[in-house]
Amino acid sequence: MTALLDFFYLLTLLAVMAWLLANGLLWLAGRLLSPEHLSRHLWLYALTPWLAMAAPVTAMCFIAAAKPLGWIADHCAHHGMHHPHLCFEHWPALDLQWIHLLSAAALASLLIKVLTGFLFREFKAARDTIALFALSRGNGRLRRLDTPEAFACTAGYRHPALFMTRGLTDRLDHRERRIVLAHEVAHLRRRDPLRNLVFNVLLLAHWPSSARSLCALWRQRMEEQADDRAARRFGPEAVAATLIKVARLSGPSPTGSLSASGGQLLPRIHRLLHAQPDRVSRTLTISSALTITVFLGGVATLVIVHHSLETLLGFLVGV
């Protein structure tokens, strides 16, 4: 059991080292690359710390399983008894000191803090969504709120719905109401609340500053995609004019919801009026190919240099 715990300790140490490296590179990318470039590959940047942690763990587990099968030469016998072998035949035997246990406790405390903060925010968002369903009228996905406050939003993960207040509908004409509905229906059809939740989960592995930047770009991207759906039906000028009017009328939307007035309005208006083409499917394909390539390339590289990694781990744990 002790040897197994030592093995998991080494894997965790590798994951933490890769996490620090990935976040450092993301911090550098956020200062060297433009927001437009970052917004084209948001899923790739959001996944980077997770891929960085998964690659060394996958590589080391592959090596540990491949040595007994004879796929990789077993050089464990050439090391001392306490060398941290990542192998299922020669388990590592570490002499962990109090500093290692203290580091593990600090890491566990940090993880608990991050998860607690995330769960608290999601609990508040879920409570607000339940309140919207309870106070609204209507059957199906379109729900009406009899309140003088002016806003329209989409909320809910499993069964998302579109919420629109009387205070907004009474101040819009028939065409403007249809444009707002088209924008929110685009969020519904893409299941943006659920996608937003998944993206925010991925951001848990980022530095707070990087997470905030990527979250803002992601929110802007979702609103722009919904704008494009509405613009294809009603025209970009009409959508831009309606967004300006809604922004003037709307107050803050409930926590966890997506509203037509969300994101940065001026870039959205500028984008609509200049008719920039949407290349979402193309960039998503490129991001997916880059993600797979980077991950498999990282795993292959780590398998090749695994002996050096074992030596580095031995130095870090004082073996």
Automatic annotation (TrEMBL):
The chain crosses the membrane at residues 6-30, 42-65, 98-120, 289-309. The keyword Protease applies. The keyword Phosphoprotein does not apply. Keywords: Hydrolase, Membrane, Metal-binding, Metalloprotease, Protease, Transmembrane, Transmembrane helix, Zinc. Binds 1 zinc ion per subunit. GO terms for molecular function: metal ion binding; metalloendopeptidase activity. Its cofactor is Zn(2+). One of its GO terms (biological process) is proteolysis. InterPro entries: Beta-lactam_resp_regulator, Peptidase_M48. Belongs to the peptidase M48 family. This is Peptidase M48-like protein. It comes from Marinimicrobium koreense.
